Amino acid sequence: EINQQETSDEQQKQNNINKDQCHLWVSNIAKETHASDLKALFSKYAKVLTTKVIGSSSSQWFGYINLTTPDDVEKCIKALHQTELHGKKIHVDREMHDQPTRTSSSNTHKKQSDHSSHKPSSSSNDSHKKR
């Protein structure tokens, strides 16, 4: 029983590592794209756990996709990066690339409500933080 428990603990650790590596970030999606559209597209290549579409009136729309394995992530990136969906070429990448900008999103909320014409030079990065 101890060996089974150790194996179970190891599997749980591996599962947690895998979960961290199973997220996709999809950018440049059309405004009319829904989470169900992303799920239908990505389900052709992998088992999709969740999908989410986030956008704003500024025409920048993004998707988050949660898959089951890192291999599925690689498969989807290779198969779907730069493919067309609703008339736009989507960009598919690991969500990890976006993590640093998400950590400072609390500062972004203040900037989102500030509609002045003079924004800091980092405002181009802010558009990626609005989520």
Automatic annotation (TrEMBL):
| PROSITE patterns, per database record | RRM (PS50102)
Q: Does the keyword Nucleus apply?
A: yes
What GO MF annotations does this protein's record show? RNA binding; sequence-specific DNA binding
Q: Which SUPFAM superfamilies is this protein grouped with? A: RNA-binding domain, RBD (SSF54928)
Residue ranges of the RRM domain? 22-97
Q: Which InterPro entries match?
A: Nucleotide-bd_a/b_plait_sf, RBD_domain_sf, RRM_dom, SAF_Modulators
Keyword check for RNA-binding: yes
Query: What ranges does the record list as Basic and acidic residues composition bias?
Result: 86-100
Instruction: List the keywords (alphabetical).
Output: Nucleus, RNA-binding
Write the protein's name: RRM domain-containing protein
User: Which species does the entry assign this protein to?
Assistant: Adineta steineri
